Amino acid sequence: MMFTYRLRPLLCACLASFLLGLSCHAQAAYPDKPIKIVIGFPAGGPLDTHIRLLTDKLQAILGQPILVDYKAGAGGTVGALFVAQSPADGYTLLLGNTGTMVINPAIYTPPPYILLNDFQPVARTAQQALGLIVNNDVPVKTLKEFIAYAKANPGKLNYGSAGNGGISHLVPEMLKQETGIDIVHIPFKGSAPAFTDLMAGHVQFMAESIPQVANYAKQGKIKVLAVTSKTRSIALPEVPTVIETGVANLEVVGFYGVLAPRNTPAEAIQKLSNAFKQTLETPTIQERMIAQGADPAFLGAEQFTKFLSIETPRWAKVVKQAGAKLD
Q1: Backbone phi, then psi, for 26, in 5-degree steps?
Q2: 47 and 39 in contact (C-beta within 8 Å)?
Q3: Which domains does the chain have, with CATH numbers?
Q4: Which candidate, 225, 217, 86, places its Cα nearest to that of 69?
């Protein structure tokens, strides 16, 4: 009896040490199951193309499958809210664009979410300009000709976007403000269906990310009038910038990034951020992104948070100046 009593503290200490070891092991095991990356748009759009370029390398680094899930609606808001309300365990992430992250909170009343209150930034993965494009049947070859054509046909031309509140909605509104043209907005649930209707002639004009634009342009399915960057795109070197055309003082560069639900463990955020860094520093991936028209502009979690804290009020000002508001 005395022997058992004396052993009890030793057994308790051993058990506590064992349980602590199990706990540490469980924390160190992240990730130990597949990671889901949610996109707030249908398959086949620019974000889908972007993540498909990164998936294989990410899986190799993290040692787990990367699953892509599409939750389209409200310019990416449906997917964003799904992630914000998911468990903060590092296994459900959002791949967002400029619209999802910094335009939607400014354009919707009330805001659907407060970005840095509801999400934890993980990594910025790319920056890219947009291409201003028209259906092949529109009788213009330059942006200057399109502006003149639109002014001669007020209210008769439509432009498509990936959804209300996104950058593909806001940039044409900015162009309208700059040039005084009257073209009608037709929102879609993502870029892929918008492109389908553009090529079918149901909408005549779009502003969309250069990788997507370059892909369709090289197939001869659309005409590209200008790009919104300060300098010409490597993917479309023959296409002038909007500023070069002389019809508007318009320069817009969008960005992509990965967000996790707020309160996701710091260890998971750091591991994910490092995985994206290694992936985006891979020479073959950089070459493919640049050839498509995107800049592999990685920012880690802390830098990306600072970047978003600057971009959010900047885009809120742009939204206000453009007069774009949605209920």
Answers
A1: -65, -40
A2: yes
A3: 35-128+254-322 (3.40.190.150), 129-245 (3.40.190.10)
A4: 86
d(CA 104, CA 108): 6
Is the CB of residue 64 less than 8 Å from the CB of residue 56? no
CA distances from 10 to 20, 24, 78, 206 (A): 15, 21, 54, 73
d(C-alpha 270, C-alpha 266), whole Å: 6
Asked if residues 304 and 123 have their Cβ atoms less than 8 Å apart, the reply is yes
The one-letter code for the residue type at 102 is: V
At residue 86's C-alpha, the angle toward residues 305 and 119, to 5°, is 15
Helices (H), 180-265: 191-200, 210-218, 242-245
Whether 74 and 292 have beta carbons less than 8 Å apart is answered as no
- Residues near 78 by Cβ (< 8 Å), separated by ≥ 6? 40, 71, 72
Check: CB of residue 261 under 8 Å from CB of residue 119: yes
- CB atoms closer than 10 angstroms to residue 16: 10
Smallest CA-to-CA distance from 218 within 293, 143, 269, 286 is with 293
Mention every residue, 6+ apart, whose C-beta is less than 8 A from residue 153: none
Instruction: Name residue, tokens 């787990």.
Output: 64
Phi, psi (5° rounding) for residue 152?
A: -80, -15
Per residue in 162-209, pLDDT (tens digit) is 888 789 999 999 899 899 999 999 999 888 899 999 999 999 999 999
pLDDT digits (tens, 9 = 90+) for 256-275: 999 999 999 999 999 999 99
DSSP at 240 = P
